[in-house]
Amino acid sequence: MRIYSVWVFVVIAPYWEESLDYLMSEIYFEPSAMDCYFEKQDKPTVFLVLGKEVIVDDERLAMALSRLPQLRREVLLLYYFVGYRDEAIGRLYGRCRSSINRRRNVALKQLRKEWERLEHEEQKADTF
Question: What gap in Å lies between CA 113 and CA 47, rounded to an integer?
Answer without folding.
Answer: 20
